[in-house]
Amino acid sequence: MCNYALKPTPHGVDDIERTRHKADSLCPGVIAWYDALHEQGIFRDTTMVGHGDFKLHAVYAPAARPAEAEGTAIVVHGYTDNHLVFLYLVKMYRDEFNYNVMVPDLNYHGYSEGVAAQMGWFDRLDVEKWAEMAHDIFKDDFMVVHGVSMGAATTMMMSGDELPPYIRAFVEDCGYSSVWDQFTANLKEMHLPKFPILTSANIVCKKRYGWDFKEASSVKQLAKCDRPMLFIHGDADDFVPFSHLQANYDAKVKGYKEMWVAEGAVHANAYAKHPAEYTGRVRDFLAKAKTL
Predict the structure, then answer these.
(1) Distance between CA 267 and CA 121 in Å, rounded?
(2) In the beta sheet, which residues pair with residue 43?
(3) How many Cα neighbours within 13 Å face the side chain of 33?
(4) Spatial separation of the C-alpha atoms in residues 198 and 184, rounded to whole Å
């Protein structure tokens, strides 16, 4: 169970072509857009050493009109994905909102090193370092972290930490309430019992990787979050159960929050299903967050 959940294959560099096709299926033409900007040197690659001393990769780019940039967005991908998959969000932020962008490959994903997926828990520490790097590059005082699926869990888990003042807002799209809850739902779909499978896998994860499924909790971290957050979830999501949306939303008891239920959207499909409404709701949320 531990290997099945945390070491999916193919992954990393071996999975780049699949994710390029996935990115284009979510937003036709976005790979050509990205490739052209990358070839021009507008999107740049960078690396850092993250948690566990693994070398991690990201790309970043200035806003479409750099002198008038509205802020910086950190876009965080999901499980088995990489920086390419959610380029539709990167394009939205850069071209439509005029934000600078930083897009990391999480541990074990894309061009980043790693021995297993961290499911957001230690990933949050890496995203905090990426945010610091982005601030050093762009010098903004307004930064939003926007994650999808495991990236959304990373975003929520990050939101409860002590963070610098320039990280001002969060958007989570279809994130799970905890790793324990998510794996419980996955086992139920496979008609397998939580005990002893999940309990044993949790012990293995703790011994191998230094964290456990219950400690990796979005709801526990959200209880400490006092910065604005937009919660998004499709009501047809059968991978991260729709019930996780309310659990996450209710857990945030401090500061401003909004919720949007994307009607008819399956997992990580809210933008593809409702691109104009998704864009409008994020834009309106950011405008509100800037006043708080």
Answers:
(1) 21
(2) none
(3) 18
(4) 7
pLDDT at 191: 81
For the chain, give the number of residues: 292
Q: What b-and-e string marks burial along 77-89, b requiring 16 or more CB atoms within 10 Å of the CB?
A: bbbbbbbbbbbbb
Tokens at residue 80, please?
């088995």
pLDDT profile of the chain (292 residues), mean per 10: 92 94 95 98 98 97 98 98 98 98 98 97 98 97 98 98 98 98 92 88 96 97 98 97 98 98 97 97 98 96
Q: What does R_g of the chain's alpha carbons equal in angstroms?
A: 18
Decide the pairing of beta strands 143-148 and 167-173: parallel
| Residue 101 identity (one-letter amino acid) | V
Residue type at position 240: V
Q: Which long-range contacts (CB under 8 A, 24 or more apart) does 3-9 make?
A: 5/117, 5/183, 5/186, 5/201, 6/116, 6/117, 6/119, 6/205, 6/209, 7/108, 7/115, 7/116, 7/117, 8/79, 8/80, 8/117
Q: What is the largest CA-CA distance in the chain?
A: 57
Dihedral sign for Cα atoms in the order 18, 22, 24, 28: positive
CB 263: neighbour CB atoms within 10 A? 12
CATH number of 2-289: 3.40.50.1820
